[in-house]
């Protein structure tokens, strides 16, 4: 069984170069690598496994949130002298390899992904992301944390979609978009924004994009021709007359202060994340003029809505959109590729990525 993991320095030195990488998070260089291990024990007839499902992974992908998981794991492992590791990964697809005796929702062979419903529990399963270790080739889940994948979605596409699809469709549901609304999607080249744009495809509204640097925005406009215009923070060319009714913001600590004066009366500002997640970035955050920010929101009667993940229905609704608007996969990596190339493309270090990056087990 393979897994992508944060590893101790001693273990890192023993792994072949193509299967390891030093990932840079601010001033840290953290060793990650593919490691080999034993599949978990699963006794289908045992009461202990009655509500559980063993999944053999087909693919997985990393998200921005995984950088925080990687840093947190390294804080625990960096002083270790022995060979040890911490598997990582958020999104996955896989086939059911075995089921417990109480499980009726799945059969062996079904293609499944994680169901990240939040904040309410469902079917006896805890709310939230099913695993921080989803790169593990075999993993056991409570059946309530899984959902079947429709036949029109491939196992590669499925390995990239749970968190982004569930989050984006929850945000759009909460935004209550009306006909003719001006809708702005920030960080237009990010993965989160890609999922939002895919869900906005057929809505009757005016969609605009915002990028911090302005790089690589043309490819987004080509793929989503309904976007009316894309602005960049550096160019500062948003029309003074243009006000937004809805803002979808993946990194509110970057954009909220900048956009607070560009919101229409009764606007809805929805965010699902922050950019400054690492310990080093948090220490170096520039102070915000909070009274001015709050005043700008109050005088416009703006609703500020924080969003974490979504419901099962949000995930189901989101997957249905992929019947006609296929999930864009930038590239697929396998064990014949170098891990460094996978990480470089995943986190767009070459500034040439468009769509999700997936690792496929062969």
Q: Main traits of this protein?
A:
about 350 residues, about 30% strand, 6-stranded parallel sheet, 11 helices, about 25% helix, alpha/beta
What does this entry look like structurally?
The chain has 11 helices and 17 strands. It is of the alpha/beta class and 362 residues long. The strands form 3 sheets. Strands 4, 6, 7, 8, 9, 16 and 17 form a 7-stranded mixed β-sheet that branches. It has a 6-stranded parallel β-sheet with strand order 12-11-10-13-14-15, with helices on both faces. α4 (162-175) packs across α10 (312-321). The longest helix is centred in the middle third of the chain and has 14 residues, at 162-175.
Put the structure in a nutshell:
The protein has 362 residues and is of the alpha/beta class.
Low-pLDDT runs? none
Number of distinct helices: 11
End-to-end CA span: 12 Å
Number of strands: 17
Structural class: alpha/beta
Radius of gyration: 21 Å
Which strand-content bin applies to the residues?
25-35%
Blueprint (SSEs and pairs):
Blueprint: E1 2-7, H1 9-12, E2 20-25, E3 28-36, E4 52-61, H2 65-77, E5 85-87, E6 91-99, E7 111-114, E8 138-142, E9 146-148, H3 155-158, H4 162-175, E10 182-185, H5 191-200, E11 206-211, H6 217-223, E12 227-232, E13 244-249, H7 252-259, E14 263-271, H8 279-283, H9 290-299, E15 303-306, H10 312-321, E16 329-333, H11 339-346, E17 356-360
Parallel strand pairs: 10-11, 10-13, 11-12, 13-14, 14-15, 16-17
Antiparallel strand pairs: 1-3, 1-5, 2-3, 4-6, 4-8, 4-17, 6-7, 7-9
């Amino acid at each position: 069984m393979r897994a992508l993991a944060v590893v101790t320095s001693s273990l890192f030195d023993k792994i072949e170069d193509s299967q390891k990488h030093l990932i840079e998070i601010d001033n840290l260089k953290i060793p990650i690598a593919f490691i080999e291990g034993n599949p978990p024990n699963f006794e289908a007839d045992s009461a202990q496994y009655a509500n559980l499902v063993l999944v053999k992974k087909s693919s997985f992908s990393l998200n921005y949130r995984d950088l925080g998981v990687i840093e947190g794991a390294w804080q625990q492992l960096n002083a270790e002298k022995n060979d040890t590791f911490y598997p990582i990964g958020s999104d996955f697809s896989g086939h059911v390899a075995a089921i417990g005796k109480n499980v009726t929702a799945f059969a062996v062979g079904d293609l499944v992904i994680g169901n990240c419903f939040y904040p309410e529990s469902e079917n006896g399963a805890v709310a939230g992301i099913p695993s921080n270790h989803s790169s593990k080739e075999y993993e056991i889940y409570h059946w309530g944390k899984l959902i079947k994948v429709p036949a029109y979605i491939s196992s590669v596409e499925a390995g990239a979609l749970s968190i982004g699809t569930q989050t984006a469709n929850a945000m759009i549901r909460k935004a209550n978009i009306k006909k003719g609304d001006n809708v702005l999607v920030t960080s237009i080249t990010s993965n989160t924004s890609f999922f939002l744009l895919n869900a906005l495809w057929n809505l009757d509204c005016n969609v605009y994009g915002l990028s911090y640097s302005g790089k690589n925005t043309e490819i987004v406009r080509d793929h989503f021709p309904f976007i009316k215009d894309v602005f960049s923070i550096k160019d500062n060319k948003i029309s003074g007359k243009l006000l937004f009714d809805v803002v979808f913001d993946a990194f509110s600590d970057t954009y909220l202060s900048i956009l607070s004066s560009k919101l229409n009366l009764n606007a809805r500002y929805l965010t699902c994340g922050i950019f400054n997640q690492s310990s080093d970035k948090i220490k170096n955050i520039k102070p915000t003029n909070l009274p001015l920010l709050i005043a700008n929101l109050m005088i416009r009667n703006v609703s500020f809505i924080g969003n974490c993940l979504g419901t099962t229905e949000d995930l189901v609704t989101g997957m249905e959109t992929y019947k006609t608007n296929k999930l864009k996969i930038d590239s697929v990596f396998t064990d014949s590729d170098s891990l460094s190339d996978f990480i470089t493309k995943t986190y767009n270090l070459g500034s040439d990525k468009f769509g999700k990056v997936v690792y496929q087990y062969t």
